[in-house]
């Protein structure tokens, strides 16, 4: 039979319907449950957005309070997981550490084996609560430091800083961080979200889907780009060298990290907001080097290649200026995207059909198996 059209990379393929978020590349816009991300980022806390992604509506004051209490009270991880984390190799990448920790949380989960909607939703909230604790414990263990116990009175943002850095920064820094969490929370059928849905489609559980999502997010074409961006900015080092450095990349036809997007071709909806808050961080720290290099790279990429930056481009330097070490950037993305992933898992299972595409065979023609002695 004739070779069918192959949609390599599933470019342009609508694989399912979804009510979680909508990307509109024509207008460079993105909505979560109907609300523009930039409005959510300016007006809401990350907890409100997490609630929105799961419940479909923004919480009122009482619902928000109950949600914050429910999740903040579940941040502790078990002594067994603390022991396992202490055994991780000191030079393990924090993404591998969080992937393993989430998988372990699945072993211990009080509702392991129950894939009903309600149990899966509770698992998602437990993961939302515990992921920062795991990232903090693993990072600190790798530096020979004791873990910092999560404080249930802290907001989500305060808690992330406290369990990783052992300090809670000023309000402006917390706001910028919260903005990044909101912008990272959800983005339709990106690779990791689709991975989570694919795992779910076989009837597998929340922890399996999220572990797989983390594995997918690690790659440099996806979430790993926020780390790659900061390595790049440091390699450039000096705004005066930025243009020449970039032209060298063009000569090698190398990818420039933090640029380009499968869906947005004329600008990522999330970039202006993240850039504004990265600039604020540069002001707070009193170091404009990274933003200045970024400005030159973005202008040159647009002029010479007509390629726009994606969210990872301003998020990388923002996290650096907030005092996070570079290998923590993608795990921080995980702490946010657990919301979008799990909203999709719940949506997938509510109207599931096993995801099982076809492949067009290009291997050898059918042939007899030669006996071992004849090979
Ligand atoms: N640097 C240089 N050239 C690029 C880049 C880039 N970052 N992105 C796209 N191009 C070129 C690409 O080489 C291609 O050129 P040509 O037509 O001559 O072959 C053209 O632009 C079209 O790109 P594409 O390869 O068809 O785009 P895609 O949809 O397959 O890939 C992408 C999208 C995000 C994987 C890619 O842009 C990329 O690798 N970017 C760098 C990594 C990155 O920043 N990833 C973060 C993605 S968004 C947020 C997230 O998930 O965290």
Automatic annotation (TrEMBL):
Reactions the enzyme catalyzes: oxaloacetate + acetyl-CoA + H2O = citrate + CoA + H(+)
Keyword Translocase included in the entry's annotation: no
Annotated metabolic or biological route of this protein: Carbohydrate metabolism; tricarboxylic acid cycle; isocitrate from oxaloacetate: step 1/2
EC number, UniProt record: 2.3.3.16
Keywords: Transferase
Top-level enzyme category: transferase
Record keyword Electron transport present: no
Similarity annotation: Belongs to the citrate synthase family.
Entry protein name: citrate synthase (unknown stereospecificity)
């Amino acid at each position: 039979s004739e070779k069918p059209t192959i949609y390599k990379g599933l470019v342009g393929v609508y694989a399912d319907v979804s009510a979680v978020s909508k990307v509109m590349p024509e207008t460079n816009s993105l909505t979560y449950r109907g609300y523009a991300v930039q409005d959510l980022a300016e007006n809401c806390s990350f907890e409100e957005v997490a609630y929105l992604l799961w419940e479909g509506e923004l919480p009122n004051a009482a619902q928000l309070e109950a949600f914050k209490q429910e999740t903040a009270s579940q941040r502790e991880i078990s002594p067994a997981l603390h022991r396992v984390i202490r055994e991780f190799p000191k030079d393990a990448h924090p993404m591998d550490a969080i992937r393993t920790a989430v998988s372990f949380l699945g072993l211990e989960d009080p509702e392991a084996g129950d894939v009903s909607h309600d149990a899966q939703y509770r698992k998602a909230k437990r993961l939302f609560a515990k992921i920062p604790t795991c990232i903090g414990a693993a990072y600190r263990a790798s530096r020979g430091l004791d873990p910092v116990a999560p404080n249930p009175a802290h907001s989500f943002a305060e808690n992330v800083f406290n369990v990783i850095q052992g300090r809670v920064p000023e309000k402006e820094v917390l706001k910028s961080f919260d903005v990044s969490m909101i912008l990272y929370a959800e983005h339709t059928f990106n690779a990791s979200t689709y991975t989570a849905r694919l795992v779910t489609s076989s009837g597998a559980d929340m922890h399996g889907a999220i572990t797989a999502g983390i594995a997918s997010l690690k790659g440099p074409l996806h979430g790993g780009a926020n780390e790659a961006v900061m390595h790049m900015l440091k390699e450039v080092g000096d705004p005066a060298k930025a243009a020449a450095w970039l032209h060298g990349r063009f000569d090698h036809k190398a990818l420039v990290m933090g640029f380009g997007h499968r869906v947005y071709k004329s600008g990522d909806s999330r970039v202006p907001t993240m850039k504004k808050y990265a600039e604020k961080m540069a002001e707070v720290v009193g170091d404009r080097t990274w933003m200045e290099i970024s400005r030159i790279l973005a202008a040159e990429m647009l002029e010479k290649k007509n390629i726009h930056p994606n969210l990872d481009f301003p998020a990388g330097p923002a996290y650096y200026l907030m005092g996070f070490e570079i290998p923590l950037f993608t795990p921080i993305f995980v702490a946010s995207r657990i919301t979008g992933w799990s909203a999709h898992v719940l949506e997938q299972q509510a109207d599931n059909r096993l995801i099982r595409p076809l492949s067009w065979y290009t291997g050898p023609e059918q042939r007899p198996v030669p006996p071992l002695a004849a090979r």
